[in-house]
Amino acid sequence: MGMGDFGPIKGMNGCGQEGETRAAAIAEQYEEGFITDEERYRLTVESWKKADARVQEMLAEQMVGQDSTMPRP
After folding, report:
1. Alpha helix stretches (DSSP H) within the chain
2. Which of 8, 16, 23, 36 could serve as a FRET partner for 53 with CA atoms 20 to 30 Å apart?
3. Dihedral sign, CA of 48, 15, 6, 60?
């Protein structure tokens, strides 16, 4: 199974945009001195992990009912 076996993930662009928006907000909080560099890093990583989990959930939902077996030669 390769990347070509997957269609586009519906809603993925929204997750990416949400992640970018959240990362920018976190960076702004850091620049304004509201959070430390360690907090900025932790919050950014957590935010992208959540976005990744959402994308994986969307992919799993889209894959329900699809045959993932490969034909044998």
Report:
1. 12-31, 37-63
2. 36
3. positive
